[in-house]
Amino acid sequence: MNLPGVTVGEDKPQRRDRVVPVEVFRAVTEDVVYVEQTTGSLYAETDVDVRSEVDGIVSKIFFEEGDEVEKGNLLITLDDKEYRYKKLENEGKVKKAEADLDLAKKTLTRMTQLYKEGVISGQDYDIAVSDVEVKEASLETVHATLSFSVKELEDTRILAPISGIVSKKFVDVGEYVTEGSTDMLNIVDVNPVKLEFTVPAKYFSYVKTDEEVSVSIEAYPDEEFSGTIYYINPKIPIETRRFQCYARIPNPDRKLSPGFFVLVTLSVATHPDAVVIPEEAVLSEEGVYYCFRVEEGRAIKADITPGIRLKGGMIEIKKGLQAGDSVVVRGQYVLSDGERVEAKPFKVAERE
């Protein structure tokens, strides 16, 4: 860890005949949360290219790019004359098939009576039965054809498949569209937005679903957004040794857009009851970190192992201090090990 501005060079010669005025801080404990910062990207919750299910010419468009639409809203209509004609034609075929079946059933009723009276042969009776079955199958077929033509007519009305914002329009009135292949418009649902980011594999056991993450974006430097992890990919690529995480971020004001590059902060571990002191109490010499602890009126040099920096100018001390130890925060740069000091409490308010 580099702590600029606190490196002490040569040892000061001990002057035990002087008393150095210092300010001290009693080490405290708190739960220290280790965080990991990584980068990620935002995506739409849903991103849909809308296509027609029938061929046709665009007759009307009921939206503009940027419009917010609800699922089921009418977006586009196609020229439906051909499909109306097909529907009417098939309705006529159904009526004819129904009449043919009705006649066949009446004929079968008469033939059944004649067969019982021995007037006709069994072969003639079987023909009448078969004719009813054929007419029933024919009616079923034309009913299916009618249902299909009804659906085709309905499909000339292009409805919004999801709620969201029209991000792009690809067609104009008068343009011919082809079933299943012509993109007509794009709708994105951006509330919430999805966040994708990766985390080093060493933190895999610490990151959990339902954990909150904070997100900062260059476009809004004074704001912080929060989201919740909903999925962690269990597969860790050998090439990166990082696992993929997915989160959702509420976006009711539509401030966040798909494609944003973001900075993600999440907690990866917690050290309960960690010893914490002001960072300026930490000194270093030839890569060794230390501070001065005050005991019985003297400054005692104590080697320490710093942890992570915390908010408010504090720092975690992993090793070398205990809670309640008095450490020098003012006057430490002129001290020597064992030197006499006159200590007074360090006023935290002066840090602000």
Name the descriptors.
352 residues, alpha+beta, conserved putative lor/sdh protein from methanococcus maripaludis s2 fold, Elongation Factor Tu (Ef-tu), domain 3, OB fold (Dihydrolipoamide Acetyltransferase, E2P), 4 domains, six-stranded antiparallel beta barrel, four-stranded antiparallel sheet, elongated
3D structure, described in words:
This protein is an alpha+beta fold. The chain has four domains: 20-32 and 272-351, conserved putative lor/sdh protein from methanococcus maripaludis s2 fold (Beta Barrel); 36-45 and 188-270, Beta Barrel (Elongation Factor Tu (Ef-tu), domain 3), CATH 2.40.30; 50-77 and 159-187, OB fold (Dihydrolipoamide Acetyltransferase, E2P), CATH 2.40.50; 81-154, Helix Hairpins, CATH 1.10.287. It contains two helices and 20 strands. It has helices at 81-117, 122-154; strands at residues 20-26, 28-51, 56-61, 68-69, 74-78, 157-159, 164-169, 176-177, 183-200, 212-217, 220-232, 242-249, 261-278, 283-285, 288-295, 298-303, 305-309, 314-319, 326-330, 341-345. Strands 2-9-12-11-10-13 form a six-stranded antiparallel barrel. A hairpin with a 2-residue loop joins β14 and β15 (288-295). The longest helix is centred in the first third of the chain and has 37 residues, at 81-117. It starts with 19 loop residues before the first strand and ends in a 7-residue tail after the last strand.
